[in-house]
Design goal:
Elements (H helix, E strand, L loop, with lengths): L7 E6 L1 E3 L17 H10 L1 E10 L6 E7 L10 H9 L2 E6 L6 E9 L4 E9 L2 E3 L2 E3 L6 E3 L1 E2 L2 E5 L3 E9 L5 E10 L2 E5 L7 E7 L2 E6 L22 E5 L3 E5 L1 E2 L2 E2 L3 E6 L3 E3 L1 E5 L7 E6 L6 E3 L3 E3 L2 E8 L23
Parallel strand pairs: 2-10, 18-22, 19-24
Antiparallel strand pairs: 1-5, 3-4, 3-6, 6-7, 7-11, 8-9, 12-15, 13-14, 13-16, 14-15, 16-17, 20-21, 22-28, 23-27, 25-26, 25-28
Length: 332
């Protein structure tokens, strides 16, 4: 067996693979349309890079650097300038046991030390003819977007996201973390059809994930035209009510009649199958007595109710069953 040197010095030039995305985010546009949108926004916020290498044994045997990110030609960080910052770091450690795995890491932070990107790579030394050497891919670290990316929204106090279904209707809503004028946006939601809501200043603002633009709520005026089920209303006029029936089955109706003067009224009810009621009952509002009325009826100023009464063959209302409470009710 070949002898193994007690100490093996390892030097790693860290490199990374980063995917570029779309154009710079505009001030009124939020980077929530896609993962590319979010990653290009995030790299422009990069301020610090932490890089390091280490061994599992002994614990704490590592070397690292925490350095500011270089700016690109545009004056803000880019993927290329961030990679350039990383590859300039020349780190080395002394490996006690070359059979143990080694690891390398990269973390990218913004000026507030929020994590933007991270990468991790574990590898083993290669035992060859000349002893232990670094594997060919030792420095190849794929840097991924962090789970939650801080998006700057000045004055934001709270935020939530609505998941939209295939028809664009709002579904479940989830609160997002907000801190120091930033909304921490989950990267996975950048691939979803969502509506982002943020309470800014004294009101809510909204952004659509389709293009990241703000959405202004539209006002719709509602002209109500309500009616009560089974109730018809008339004022100062004779009325003829035709009730729709099929084979004698249909809904009965009550007429509320408002009289603004002393007058007479001729209440008339019939079915669509040509049937007439057995009688018509009338009650004045504020009283409890129902009276049978025939022909033209004198009324004073007030409100009156008219209800036709039918024999079963002329009009029978559909069944509207009552079901006792599940606990059974009754006395204990």
């Amino acid at each position: 067996m070949k002898s193994i040197s007690k100490f093996c010095t390892v030097t790693i030039a860290l490199i990374s693979a980063l995917v570029a995305g779309n154009a710079l985010a505009q001030t009124t546009i939020l980077p929530i349309t896609s993962k590319s949108d979010l990653s290009t926004y995030a790299v422009e916020q990069a301020a610090w890079v932490s890089v390091g290498i280490g061994t599992s044994v002994p614990a704490g045997n590592n070397a690292g650097a925490f350095v500011p990110v270089d700016k690109s030609v545009s004056g803000v960080p880019s993927f290329k300038s961030t990679i350039g910052t990383i590859v300039k770091q020349d780190l080395s450690i002394a490996d006690v046991n070359p059979n143990d795995p080694l690891f390398a890491y990269i973390y990218v932070y913004n000026a507030d030390y929020d994590l933007l990107f991270m990468g991790w790579h574990q590898f083993n030394l290669v035992n060859g003819k000349g002893g232990y050497t670094m594997p060919q891919d030792y420095g190849e670290i794929l840097i991924d977007l962090a789970d939650n990316i801080p998006i700057k929204i000045p004055g934001v106090q709270s935020a939530m996201v609505d998941l939209l279904n295939g028809s664009g209707q709002s579904g479940p809503s989830y609160s997002l973390t907000v801190q120091n004028d930033k909304v921490y946006f989950p990267r996975q939601l950048a691939e979803q059809n969502i509506l982002l809501e943020a309470y800014v200043g004294s009101g809510w603002q909204f952004w659509d994930s389709a293009d990241g633009s703000t959405v202004s709520p539209e006002k719709y005026a509602e002209d109500f035209d309500p009616s009560f089920d089974g109730i018809l209303t008339y004022t100062d006029e004779d009325f003829i009510v035709t009730l729709t029936t099929q084979n004698g089955v249909g809904e009965n109706m009550t007429v509320e009649y408002t009289s603004t003067i002393a007058q007479t009224v001729f209440p008339t009810f019939k079915t669509s199958e040509g049937k007439s009621p057995q009688k018509i009952l009338m009650r004045q509002s504020g009283t409890s007595e129902w009276n049978v009325v025939v022909g033209r009826v004198p009324v004073g100023v007030g409100v009156y109710y008219f209800v036709p009464v039918w024999d079963a063959s002329s009009l029978t209302e559909p069944s509207d069953p009552w079901y006792p409470p599940s606990n059974g009710g009754g006395k204990g």
